[in-house]
Amino acid sequence: MKEELIIAGFGGQGVLSMGKILAYSGIMQDKEVTWMPSYGPEMRGGTANVTVIISDKRISSPILQHCDTAIVLNQQSMDKFEPMVKKGGLLLYDPNGITRHPTRKDITVCSVEAADLANRMEMSKAFNMVVLGAYLKMKPILEKENVIKGLKKSLPERYHNLIPMNEKAIELGMKHVKEVI
């Protein structure tokens, strides 16, 4: 098993955190992992993306030309990363703020209205965990218990009181992700 993944959106959407949680989760599951963040100097409001590779075997390079999965959370990321998804791969996105929806027919396209769901449940800070739950439903490569361990490892201890909310957000994403036809 080898999953090559790009997560992209605006700074402040939890893109890098989501990648870090996946990386820690892979480690908890005895996988080989790379995590390579990339963000502009603006941080919040600028574009940010992270490349995560999770594999049963050693990983030769963290740099990707194409990916198995792209999670996109803004239009700039859709424009940049939709073409990079391998044939048969997965594109997962939150339609909030997307003006040009994916058009490829050779990949699986799924959406989750993470921003709306998180706001309705008064968990706006857990928006990225709704997206993560949607991803885990579509690509169950990591066990949920390891994702929670990865969440604990990546969150500073003073925020561990937020873990139940984040777990609820993951479940919400798993429940509400849908394939786009």
Task: Please write out the topology.
Blueprint: E1 2-10, H1 15-28, E2 32-39, E3 47-55, E4 67-72, H2 75-81, E5 85-93, E6 108-111, H3 114-120, H4 127-138, H5 144-154, H6 163-176, E7 178-179
Parallel strand pairs: 1-4, 4-5, 5-6
Antiparallel strand pairs: 1-3, 2-3, 6-7
In short:
The chain is α/β, with parallel strands linked by helices. The chain is 36% helix and 26% strand.
Question: Care to describe what's here?
Answer:
The model has no long low-confidence stretch (mean pLDDT 92). β2 (32-39) and β3 form a beta hairpin. α4 (127-138) crosses α6 (163-176). This protein has helices at 15-28, 75-81, 114-120, 127-138, 144-154, 163-176, and strands at residues 2-10, 32-39, 47-55, 67-72, 85-93, 108-111, 178-179. The two termini are 27 Å apart. It is globular. It has a single domain (2-179), classed as 3-Layer(aba) Sandwich (Pyruvate-ferredoxin Oxidoreductase, domain 3). Strands 2-3-1-4-5-6-7 form a seven-stranded mixed beta sheet, with helices on both faces. The longest helix is centred in the N-terminal third of the chain and has 14 residues, at 15-28. The protein contains six helices and seven strands, in the order βαβββαββααααβ. The chain is an alpha/beta fold and 181 residues long.
> Which strand order do you get reading across the main beta sheet?
2-3-1-4-5-6-7
- Output the CATH topology: Pyruvate-ferredoxin Oxidoreductase, domain 3
CATH homologous superfamily name? Pyruvate-ferredoxin oxidoreductase, PFOR, domain III
Number of DSSP strands? Answer: 7
Please mark out the parts with pLDDT under 50 across 5 or more consecutive residues, or reply none: none
Q: What is the alpha-carbon Rg in Å? A: 15 Å
Using the coordinates above, name the CATH class. Answer: Alpha Beta
Q: Give the biggest beta sheet.
A: 7 strands, mixed
Count of domain modules: 1
Molecular shape: globular
What proportion of the residues form beta strands (DSSP E)?
25-35%
Mean pLDDT: 92
Class from secondary-structure proportions: alpha/beta
**H/I helix tally:** 6
CATH architecture: 3-Layer(aba) Sandwich
Listing every helix as H and every strand as E from the N terminus to the C terminus, the arrangement reads EHEEEHEEHHHHE
Helical residue percent? 25-40%
- C-alpha termini separation: 27 Å
